[in-house]
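Quick start: load a record and inspect it. Here is Reverse transcriptase domain-containing protein:
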Amino acid sequence: MVREFSKPGGMKACVKLDLRKAYDTVNRDFLCHLMLAMGFDARWVAMVRECICSPTFSVLIQGTPHGYFSSNRGLRQGDPLSPYLFTLVMEYFTCMMDLAVHSQRIVPLFRLVSPVVSHLIYADDLLVLLQPTMRGMSALSDIMEEFGRLSGLQLNREKSRVYFSSRCTQQEERAYALGVDRGELPVKYLGVPLTVNYARDCHSLVDFVQRRVEGWQAAGLSFGGRIELVRSVIAGITMFWFQSIQIPSATIRKVEALCADFIWRGGMHAISWDQLCRPREEGGVGLRPLHTVRKAACVKMAWRFIKGGSLWADWMASRYPRRTNFWACRIDNNFSVTFKAILRCRPVLQTAICRHMKDGTTTDLWLDPWLGSRSLLEILGEQMDREAGRGLTCSRIIRDGVWRPEGYTYTAQLAEEIRLITIDASQAEDTWSWAGPGAGGGSGHFCFRSCYDLVRTHHDHAEEVDFIWGKGVARKIQLCAYRLLRGRLMTRDRLLRFGMQIPDAKCVLCNVEDESMGHLFFGCPVTWHIWTEQCAQLRGGVGIDRDIRSILSWIRDHIGRDPGWARRARVRLAASVWHIWKERNRRIFEGSTTPPIGILHNIEFDVSVMAP
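Running the structure step on this input writes:
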C-alpha cells in the first residue's frame, strides 16, 4: 500500500498514531459498557469487572513494601486477559473509522479495491491510510479526540507522524489540521520499513543486530551461549522481517558477518559460517543461513496467498495478478518487490502442495497444479490448451462426483491418472494442503520447518558428528567435542600455522612434544591415562588409535548393549574431551594445575549428573 506513494495520481497520506500509556489508561467503565453493547452476558461482564478492578498494589520505599492501594483505570500488563480486553477497546476505534469512511468524511487510499483498508491495528500500533483532504484530516483528529475521551486512550501527538506522497501539496497545513508532525519516508510499522528499495532502507536491522551483539560481548558468554543467542534472538528478529519484506542480499551478508564475528569473538573463524549453518546431523550446529530462511519465508507468503482467508491475502489478490491465473502470471516490473519474489517461488511451492478436489469449480483445469505437482498444461502443452479453450475449471470433467476426463486428456494413461484422484463431495470448495517434507505431521497445515527443509541445500550425513548431540549433555561440552571432531580447536600448532606468535609450542600437560590435537587428546601421557580409565568404564577394551573417531566407531558398534549405555558412552566421551581441553586452558591462562585423578573425578561427576 505504501509503495503506491511513489506512483503518480492523486494525493496520498499514511498516518502512524501512537497511544499514550495504552494499557495503563483504559477506562474500565467504558470497557464494560462496550462489552454489554457487543452482546456479552451481564454476568460475564461482571466477572471481568471484578478481575480488572479487584487487584491492589504496593510500592517499595527504601526497600520496604508500603500500601496496598487499588487503581481506578487501566489493564494490568502481563495479565493473559488484558490483550483480549484491549482488542475489544480498539474494536470501537475500528467502528468509528468504518462509520467515517461510510459517511465519506474519510476517504481511504484504495476505496475502489476490495477489501477496503482504511487502517491497520496491531495492539496499540495504529496505521491509517487515507486521502489527505482537509476534511479527512480534521475528521481523523476529531475521531481520535472522541475515542480518547470515551476510552481513556489519548493520542501521543509528539510520537505520532503523518507521511505524505511527493505529489501532495500543502503538507504542513494538512499535518497541522491533524495535529501531528510530518515524517520522512520510508514509513516504519512495528519496527519494519514498509518500503524497501535499497540496502540503506534496512540499515535499522543491521544497527539492531550490532547493538545486541555489542551488549552480549560484555557478558563473557561461552561458545555455546553465543551460538544459542544467535539461533534464538537474531534468527527471531530476522524471521519477523523476512515475513514482512524482502531484505536485500547486502543486508543479509552484513547481519551474517556480525553474527559470525560475535560467535568467534572477532578473532579467527575456526569453522566457516556455511559449515555452522547446517543441521547437526549434517555436520553443523543447527544455525540457518539467512538467505535460505528468506527464501523459505517467501514460499510461506506464496502459500498464504494461494490459501487466502486473511486480510493480507485478500488485498494482494485484489491487486495481483489482474485478469490472469496466479500460476500463469508473468513477472511485471510494476509489481512490488515482495510479489515478484512470491512469483519466483512458485516452482518450489508447486512441489509441496496438494489440491483436494471437491466440486472442481475453483480449480483451473489447465493452469492449477492439481495433478500431483503439475498442471494439465505442463503435461499436454500449449497447443492442447488453445484447442480446448482457456478459463475452464475442473468441474467440466466432474459429473455426479465422478471424473469424466474424456475429450480433455488425449491419452488413456493420463485419464486413468485423473480417475485415481479422490473427489470429496462433503464440501463445496476445492482446497490446498501442505505436502512438503514432514508435511506438518500429516495434517496438511503449513509447517515452516518443512518449508525450510524443502528449500535448503542438503549435505551428506555426518555420522560421527551427529552422535555427540543428545539430550542431557551440556551444550558447551557438546560443542567442544564437535570442534575436536572437525579439527578446529585452536591448539598451538594451529596458532603457529595462522601466523600467531607464541612463546612455546610444547604441550602444557607433558611439556615433551609439540602441542597438536592428536597429541593433546590421545598422545600425551596424561590424557592417555585418562582415556585408559574411560575405556575401562565403557566395559569393552576399546583401543586408542590417537583418533576420536575410532572410539566413536567402537561405541556405535556396541550401541545395542542396553538402552542407557549409548547415552552414558556419549556423555563420557564428550566430558573427557571437555575436561582435557579445560585443563589445558587452565594451565596456560591461570597457571594452575589439576592432577589426573582430579580430572577423572570431574569427568565422573559430569557423567553422574548428565547420565545418571
